[in-house]
Amino acid sequence: AGFLMQYFAVGVIYGGLPGTVYGFFLGYLNVPGYVYATAGVVTTLPWSFKFFFGLMNDCLPVNGYSRKPYMVFGWALCCATLVVLNRVGLPDPYWCVGADGNYLKHQEPCNPSAASAGGEFLRLSISEYAMLMCLAALGYVIADVAADGSTALIAFCMNGKLYNGTFDWSLSFNDVMGIFAVPAGLMVPLSWFLVVEEKVQPGERKSLRSYLKEVWGLITSKAFFFVIMFQFWEPFVGRISTPAGGLVKSEWAGVKNLQNQLFSLVALFVFSFGLWQVKKHFLNTSWRMMLLGTSVLINVMDATLAFLTIFDVVRNQYFYLGESILDEIPAAANFVIGTFIVVEMADKGNEGLTYGLMTTVANLGTPFARAVGNQIFGLFPANLSDAANYVADTQDFRQTVATSFAVSYLFSFLSLIFLFLLLTCKM
């Protein structure tokens, strides 16, 4: 029961916390596009620390327990940071609000410093909001491995007009953080009393030296070394992307928070269907060929919808979000391949170490890609992160945005050169 509750609580936080980024950062605060893109990366950054948490679990038991104390600490940290976010006084919205509750985007903003302004209780910059969300994420990563959940809460209860939604009412960002703090707080005592774990005997404890020796043995294996190089370089290069994506989605496609979250739910079912299709039809396909095919397919579909939206051929939120659902089928193939890579690499007894090390390396590439992308696209002649440029919607700016998307796709295709590092195995 204790472990089942872990997964339920993780689902609430893991599904809900990143889901607030779109409406709060891009709608309410109207942060620059590069900040919005970076905030999404920051909230998932703790996954890069998975290996180090595993090392602490195995080598540094607390009072004889390797798991429960870290679960308790993780949930306590998660709950504390969510309570802080619940207590933070929010600034007024960036845009002026009309009589009908909608933002007046063609007028001068009423609070141009919304992204950095503080509230009545605390004064936090936008980076500090993101870092507190990162700490909350850090807590649930320490506590357990993820599942999805809470998307419906964000969809229906944070769909107010102030958060890129359509309803006349809405829970505030503070309210949602408070709701998430409840299951996190409950998991502190539940993790200690309901999770069954045998104490580690003095002679059974893994020493740091033996653990690192095992890690070194894995890394110096030629096959494993090539695989972790692929796991790092492929996302590092392939995810160098334009910061314009979020603003194209909100300003030109007109995607509302409810539809954004509901399509995320549908995408989960499509992802499951994709897993079933891969299992049924593609288990004998080369990993390299499958990744090549799915990557090309994803980029072609994404480019088609993006350019039609950018040049105002079709600007419709359902049309634009359709691509996110179609992407789930090739994404499922990529997920299956990643899982089989772990199975192929792991030996008996080191499955957890192998998974933790590969997960850490795979998640390290994305923050680097975001940092490099911000620098590259910051050199463009027009500011891709300024919402005012999307409201003005000039032909020259459309061309600049299209060029930035083309550069993003170029990096995505360039990342395919690292496929030679991947095993040629079939499933």
From TrEMBL:
Q: How does it sit in the membrane?
A: Multi-pass membrane protein
Listed under GO cellular component are: membrane
Give me the segments passing through the membrane: 6-26, 33-49, 69-85, 129-156, 176-195, 215-233, 261-278, 290-311, 406-425
**4Fe-4S recorded as keyword:** no
Per UniProt, subcellular location reads as: Membrane
List keywords of the entry alphabetically.
Membrane, Transmembrane, Transmembrane helix, Transport
Q: Which InterPro entries match?
A: BT1
Give the species this sequence originates from: Polarella glacialis
The name this protein carries in UniProt is Uncharacterized protein
| Principal location | membrane
Q: Which domain of life is it from?
A: Eukaryota
